[in-house]
Amino acid sequence: MPILAVWLGPLPVPRSPKKVRVVLVSPPPRPCPTPAVERLRPRGPVTRVFRTNRRVKEHVGACVIQGWTVVRGWDGARKGERPCLVWKGLEGLVAVPPGNISDLAAFILPGLYIGNFKDARDVEQLSKNKVTHILSVHDSARPMLEGVKYLCIPAADSPSQNLTRHFKESIKFIHECRLQGEGCLVHCLAGVSRSVTLVIAYIMTVTDFGWEDALHTVRAGRSCANPNLGFQRQLQEFEKHEVHQYRQWLKEEYGENTLQDAEEAKSILATPGILKYWPFLRRL
Question: What structural domains does the chain harbor?
Answer without folding.
Answer: 17-93 (no CATH), 106-282 (3.90.190.10)
